[in-house]
Specification:
90 residues; mainly alpha; 78% helix
């Protein structure tokens, strides 16, 4: 997939999501058709694609929550160390 097109602009822009859908469409359909040629039914392929999408979204949410919790724990630890250092200096 090294030939996959990049976004038109690096920053968000109107219809960026539609541009990506346009480029993902042929890749998506190629995977669907390959699975169907291998013997999977159209509904099995659709179910699998939906489950993969949901799993990926759940992973993104979980990773974001983990990142938030880790950042909070680091901030708490830094604050604790700061207060311990100032106590020792006094």
């Amino acid at each position: 997939m090294s030939d996959f097109p990049a976004p038109k602009k690096p920053a968000p822009y109107v219809d960026r999501d539609l541009d990506l859908q346009f480029h993902l469409g042929p890749v998506f359909l190629a995977a669907v058709h390959a699975a169907e040629r291998a013997g999977w039914s159209e509904s099995e392929v659709a179910d699998a694609m939906a489950e993969l999408t949901i799993s990926h979204l759940l992973k993104l949410v979980a990773n974001g929550e983990t990142d938030r919790l880790v950042a909070g724990a680091i901030e708490e630890r830094i604050a604790l160390w700061g207060s311990q250092c100032s106590t020792k200096l006094n």
